[in-house]
Amino acid sequence: DGYTDLTSNNVIAMSSLDVSEAYINSFKSVGYNNIPCHNIIAMKSMGITPDYIKGLAQIGYKDIPVQSLIAMKSMDIDGAYVKGFDDIGYKEIPANQIIAFKSMNITPSFIKGFMDIGYKEIPAHTAVSLKSLDITPDYVSGFKKLGFTDIPLNQLAGLKSTGVTPEYVASMQQKGFKSDNLRKYMQLKTSFDDGK
Hints:
The chain is mainly α and 196 residues long. The chain has 13 helices and no strands. The protein is elongated.
């Protein structure tokens, strides 16, 4: 198999997973030579085959690092998942970004929801931020109902992290604090919260 300096744990893992020389050599046909032992063990345990790698290549993922292959397989990233993003205009998403999307449970419909309310070009890293802060299209629509349109994507994170919600803005407006600048509501919220 070409492996030297195998630890007893490597030998046990390879034996229990039935890692054969044929399995190891099968990856040469898809361009993966000299795969480190710990990676070949992980690949076998995840059920990664040359066909899986060929499938990824067909959707644009060629020559990706073994660690990314393992991550993609462990998260069940497949052609259908990637095609969903392709269909809404997200083409050639780097492997690390598609892994981040899947790990955050970002779906094409999540991004499409923002596109439907006017955000056309959402950078991939911004989509991750939106999801991590639990910012949804409904959250944004709540502000739109109050007359706040065209809120910059980067301002949404500030609003959410300071606890400014459409309900908060509406309650402050009812109390007489009216502004067409959402930053004023963030200042009010943080000043009020600091004064508790």
